[in-house]
Amino acid sequence: MHRLTLALVSSLLVLVSACSKGSGPSTPTGPSSSTPTRIINLSGSLAFGSVNVGSSRDATLTITNTGTAPLTVTGMSATGGFPDHSSVSWTQGTIPAGGSQSVNVRFEPRSAGTFSGTLTVNADHTGGVNTIAVSGTGAGVTAAGTWSGRYVVERCDGTGSVQDLFCSANRGLYPAGTSLPLDLVLTQSGSTVSGTAYFGQVTGPVTGVVSSGGTLTLQGTARSSGLTITVTGWSTPINGNSMTGVINFNVGSGSLPGVAAITARLTQVTR
Q1: How many angstroms separate the CA atoms of 158 and 253, rounded?
Q2: How far apart, in whole angstroms, are the C-alpha atoms of residue 188 and residue 202?
Q3: Strand, coil or helix: what is 122?
Q4: Is CATH 2.40.128 correct for 145-270?
Q5: Each residue's pLDDT tens digit, 167-203
Q6: What's the gap between Cα 226 and its chain centre?
Q7: Hey, which residues does 183 pair with through a beta bridge?
Q8: Is 39-139 CATH 2.60.40.10?
Q9: Is the dihedral of CA 197, 199, 203, 204 positive or negative?
Q10: Quick one: DSSP state of residue 27?
Q11: Separation CA 88–CA 75 (nearest Å)
Q12: φ/ψ bin of 43: left (φ > 0), alpha (ψ from -120 to 50), beta (otherwise)
């Protein structure tokens, strides 16, 4: 009987102890906190391949934010010469969490050559990858550069004292067969060419175009010391770093009547 009573008392004490431990107030737990993230990723192919100079090709770049907070894009940059041969439709703004932004990237080569580099999206990202490879080739012939060589007078027609003084067979300064210096400093944007022509000491601006096949066409007027040289025909093929062909120009003088109409052939004109 005593053993039963002791067992009951012991069980009651254990029960009371358990109840007293669980009866106190529990410590409340607040909501969990986390740091906002802005995860940037770039997708799309910016390998443009071969594009003719003066033409263009488009590609789509997608900027994705897989973070938990808005992503702010502040600009874009590129290496490998691409800034001079490309344009983009969107450069800055905000991309919401879980959102994306499509950007049209246009490759428009202004000169022949191969361009390869990296496009970087500048943003306040906390993770991810903000760079992507970009490449393209400008196909065709470029006339840009500094050209030096000579031209040989093949024919000189015209009227008056100017023709007689410059290239008459009897007493002309530059009769047929005369070799004279020629220099060109040209720049090119697309198929459009501009620069300066140097007919010896007579210099002046020239403009024109270069065809996809590599034929340069120029026009312009050079002046110096009372002389005027006006290009009347210039259609010269470019092959690599050499220029050949026939040019035509008129020579005039403010102090003498008449004009000398010269046909000349380029020789050893290179860049």
Answers
A1: 13
A2: 23
A3: strand
A4: yes
A5: 887 788 899 999 999 999 999 887 899 999 999 999 9
A6: 41
A7: 148, 198
A8: yes
A9: negative
A10: P
A11: 11
A12: beta
